[in-house]
Amino acid sequence: MNIPFLSLKDVNGRYMEEIQRAAAGALDSGWYLQGKENAGFEEAYGSYIGSGHCVGVANGLDALTLILRAYLELGALRPGDEVIVPANTYIATILAVSENGLKPVLVEPDIRTYQIDEKKLEAAVSARTKAVMIVHLYGKCAYTETIGRICRERGLLLIEDNAQAHGCMYRGRRTGSLGNAAGHSFYPGKNLGALGDAGAVTTDDALLADTVRSIANYGSWKKYIFQYKGRNSRMDEIQAAVLSVKLKYLEEDNDRRIHIAGIYMDKITHPDIILPPAGEGKDYVCHIFPVRTKERDALQAYLQECGIQTMIHYPVPPHRQMAYAEWQEMEFPVSEEIHATELSLPMGPAMRDEEAEYVADVLNRWKNG
Which distant-in-sequence residues (6+ apart) come within 8 Å of 286 by Cβ? Predict the structure, then answer.
């Protein structure tokens, strides 16, 4: 049996006819940017998340970058201010901070949850700290009451990187609506994936949303009138049409992901494999199913020989990347342990039960014949 990590053809093939009709409608309209498809998706996705405003942008990195840039323009942030971020995140989270002339402050995760450690977060707050950017990594909710309290008491902006957690819940509310603003990625492999790059910003702050929209449109709030030195970051109409179709199936797809994760949790019994923390309800929508072992590379090679494709999220932590050479001497042992031992098993809404059971069976036989 050959099992891909994620077959996007299979994921999208389940509703391809509906996607094709929606894309054809956008093409036939003759209006390809900032039209009714964008407006319709923004309204639907904002309502789904539970935020008063949604702004479609070109990708998830732009979403985070534009949030911070808008706060700079509005005076809520100043160049050089510190923004706390998890040390084990994907580099896009950190790029958004440094691109805006702000200082990323890396905080270790909790080894049990892989989410930012709330105790270490509080210790990292300084007089220069003005924001905290939490990341719902792997599709698991990173928000806690303690994090919310710290931000309220210290007057810190709380920004969510919701790129991996579309549909994730926290006590009846969706991630992406828990802080002051959130950035979302619709990269094709996400739980809600476009057929190319796309992203969005959600917030209840009307002024922030208007500012993000203006900066993303060359800094223009009115045609040929430019308030900011902006950029071009807009979701095209075809992607908006595709996402509107797929949004209707997101809950069903997340349920399927959770079901597949349940098979893994029940069936994987190998003593050398550390499973992720179990989800409660939909606080984990299983974008990634990460396991850990000290012999990660050997396990990956073994699974590949058995026809099972896996991925590593992520092989090199941000502070060891050449892009941030100034951090090369810093040590984040918890993050380094996660990055050295993590392996992501196949996961997706088109995956069959028997495929997940096969993965578990093969994994349990590792080193045991």
Answer: 138, 139, 254, 257, 258, 260, 261, 279, 347
